[in-house]
Amino acid sequence: MAELLTLSRHILQQARDHHEATGDFNLLMSHIATATKVVARQVSKAGLLNVLGKTGDTNVQGEEVTKLDIIANESLKAMLDDLPMVCALASEEDASFVTTRAGATSGRYLIAFDPLDGSSNIDVNVSIGTIFSVRRRATVGELPTEADFLGPGSELVAAGYAVYGSSTMFVYTTGKGVDGFTLDPGVGEYVLSHRNMTLPDRCRVLSINGTNRDRWYPGTQAFVDHIVGRTEARYERTTGRYIGSLVADFHRNLIYGGVFAYPADTSSPEGKLRLLFEAQPLALIIEQAGGAATDGRQRILDIRPDGLHARATLVIGNTREVELYGRYEAAHGQP
Q: What is the pTM of this model?
């Protein structure tokens, strides 16, 4: 039987090969992975544990909170709160960041996460996921501030996601390529299944919510028309797929090749996706896989958030399509 390479062993191998990662960082990544296993277990049993449906509350984003949103958020915070190398946690579900119990003044790392992306799809059993990023603060010895989280995405030291679908996968990068792991329920471990993931140079899928077309700015309309018009051989076999779970749409396009777009429009002039919790981590992953990410004007990883919950346009996928969007945006502009 072929030897299985678990996520924990892979992290240790990367540390040895690159002579960069520390034991603290390895433990941190292992805890994040374990937290996603806890969430995966809750998701898989959601229909049996009476945790489907909404709580009746709204979060800081103005979105309805589901019961699993709360469970995922609390699970991640509980798993990471007692790590001495972590000083603070920021969640898409919470208005502000929280300092950790063990490393508030001494920890070097800050973690931002979307605990359950796509939670509106929970009740209909559509794939959902967790997105995270890790950054290092410049100084230690004092309590962290919100400003510590607000650097550009190019400063991230790691990013990844878990997708809870027909199987649970954990995909991550530390800036040395992208690797994917599938959870083996029999042994309870993530096992390497997708080594050195690279984005195929083809636009097999266009992922955008076409029902919003009447609110799109002219640049977005022209971009979509260019692709669906099939005037280029590259787009003759392009199909439209939009799940409504960012992490699931992103994961499919990473495997098949394609582009995802959630543009600014007349109802959301600043864009709707969260820069810190969604756009930055996925942008780091896509660039490491050979793709690109933009807001139409600049590279996502160059943008500095103006707050924890700053929003942005996100166009992410194959470099050719991302650049095409940028050209149409430049040509047509927006009000």
A: 0.93
